[in-house]
Amino acid sequence: MSFLTRIVGKSTSFSGIRLMSVYPQHYVEPIVQKDKQIEQKDELTKLHHIPIKAALNKSSDTVFHDDTKEKLLNYITKKGNSALARTLLSKAFELIKRTQTERLNLAKGDKDKVITNAEVLLKQAVENCRPLLQVTAIKRGGVTYQVPVPITTKRSYFLAMKWLLEAAREKERKVSLPEKLAWEILDAAHGQGRVVKRKDDLHRQCEANRAYAHYRWS
Amino acid sequence: MRVPGALFAARGRAPQSESDVPFQEILPLRLKNTVSGKADSGSDVACLQEMGQLFACLKDNEFTEKYCSKEINQFQRCFKCYMDRKLEAKKTVNQGIVQPGSNLNYKQLNKYMRRYPNPV
């Protein structure tokens, strides 16, 4: 679907719902990345007379930008101190890089298999930790059942990152968060560790409660 | 002369005077001009069969996901399809275009009934 049809569809489908957004519905999302702008040049020329939302304050067009990383940064942040969160994550990345480089140097023979890119490892870890299902409590006849339900992609990413961070925060006082987070990420990226086990446990629980799956109704 | 009690019983109890018990209309005795949209939300149960297949595969392979990629894909596609359909249905309801026919959703029904309300 091209941009124009999308806009026309949006503006004609007027409904009585009030949206919470600052922008009216016919405003278009901005595209910040230069290469994407060049890629979609033909479609973007159609937007000459159509209002575009302002770009977010944090959005940028650097090679260091990564959506997963940005999301994780938001989850690490406490009390709005995102500067601290950024230093913590970059420290964790540094530790990952160091350990992986050490492994690379120690590895005999197959040196291509050792990934030293921390961001790639983070993405792998998050992918390995994503659950497929979830249990919700549903009350039926005075008894609360744990019913397995499918979850959206977005929520599965959220849960994976939340679990990673929870595992990293469960540590002794002397261990720093970057250290523990680096270990958890490395473990999860290789398909082991506590977070992957937690996901498996959830799947096991879902499987055990599969008889209640049809209780979903609300 | 004593009248036996059985005679009174055979006649039955005398009806109460209506003025003693005036009629109270606790709830209005006519239908409302609106319907609630609760029934239109539909059942939330979807992809049960796919879920069963996924569970069977996961159990066979001791919860190793890489051996069940086919089942996982099927399950996720099914759920995505279901969510898309739900969103589409919600959109059409919110558009509220009134069309002739008997198969109406609650918003359309409410529009009709606002146009032609019950005579008071």
UniProtKB/TrEMBL annotation, chain A:
GO biological process, one term: translation
UniProt-listed InterPro entries: Ribosomal_uS7 (IPR000235), Ribosomal_uS7_dom (IPR023798), Ribosomal_uS7_dom_sf (IPR036823)
Keywords: Ribonucleoprotein, Ribosomal protein
GO cellular component, one term: ribonucleoprotein complex
Pfam families, A to Z: Ribosomal_S7 (PF00177)
Domain Small ribosomal subunit protein uS7 intervals: 59-210
Ribosomal protein keyword on record: yes
Family statement: Belongs to the universal ribosomal protein uS7 family.
Name of the protein: Small ribosomal subunit protein uS7 domain-containing protein
Organism: Drosophila ananassae
Organism classification: Eukaryota, Metazoa, Ecdysozoa, Arthropoda, Hexapoda
Gene (name only): Dana\GF15778
Automatic annotation (TrEMBL), chain B:
Single biological process term from Gene Ontology: mitochondrial translation
A Gene Ontology molecular function term of the record: RNA binding
Stored SUPFAM superfamilies: Cysteine alpha-hairpin motif
Matches recorded under InterPro entries: Cys_alpha_HP_mot_SF (IPR009069), Ribosomal_mS37_met (IPR033620)
GO cellular component entries: mitochondrial ribosome; nucleoplasm
Domain of life: Eukaryota
Protein name: CHCH domain-containing protein
Species: Drosophila ananassae (Fruit fly)
